[in-house]
Specification:
Elements (H helix, E strand, L loop, with lengths): L1 E10 L3 E3 L4 H15 L1 H9 L6 E5 L11 E3 L5 E7 L2 H11 L6 E4 L2 E9 L9 E3 L1 H9 L19 E3 L2 E3 L4 H6 L1
Antiparallel strand pairs: 1-5, 1-7, 1-8, 2-4, 3-5, 6-7, 9-10
Helix pairs in contact: 1-2, 1-3
Length: 177
């Protein structure tokens, strides 16, 4: 099963943080997985190939060209965690997301966990599906698939290539990933 979970958070106080909080989201994700299954977290962290998950802080506070992200107390911001494997998705749904603490640390800030969304009905970026169901939409459809694909990167995105993080969505990295 594929999973996309969105976690709404709000800072305890006004914060000025770095422009990208991807590392902080990644660290929080692995720490929460480790609290539920230390061996799986260690395996996910050690794996140098493509990771079967993503962790991102969505772009709400980011302003183009600014070298900081301003987060205001009482405003909602969103983390997004995705899983591409059945064991990790099940762990997230059954043990990690229900056990999120009331407060989490991200970078130099403390955020209250306000809400967790795991379905499309709850949040547009959340959902659960199987590879078969996703493929069937296009492979079994009577209509021809669209000739164009539109991708939107809603958070800073990097691709691992030759031991480096590449912050550009180069076609070979995007479609080869």
């Amino acid at each position: 099963m594929l999973l996309s979970a969105v976690v709404a958070v709000s800072p305890r106080e006004d914060l000025v943080l770095p422009p990208s909080l991807g590392r902080a989201a990644h660290a929080l994700f692995l720490a929460r997985v480790a609290a539920a299954d230390a061996a799986l977290a260690a395996a996910l962290h050690a794996d140098q190939r493509s990771k079967p998950f993503t962790a991102a802080f969505l772009e709400e506070g980011v302003v183009a060209g600014q070298r900081q992200t301003v987060c205001r107390a009482g405003e909602r911001y969103h983390l997004r965690f995705t899983s591409l494997t059945e064991p990790l998705s099940a762990l997230l749904l059954e043990r990690v997301l229900p056990a999120l603490p009331e407060w989490v640390a991200l970078e130099r800030g403390v955020f209250r966990v306000e809400q967790v969304y795991t379905t499309r009905e709850q949040h547009a970026w959340a959902g659960q599906d199987s590879y078969q169901a996703l493929a069937a939409q296009y492979l079994l459809a009577r209509a021809a698939p669209p000739a164009r694909v539109v991708l939107v990167f809603a958070s800073p995105t990097t691709f691992r290539s030759e031991g480096r993080h590449v912050p550009l969505p180069l076609p070979g990295l995007v479609f080869g990933s």
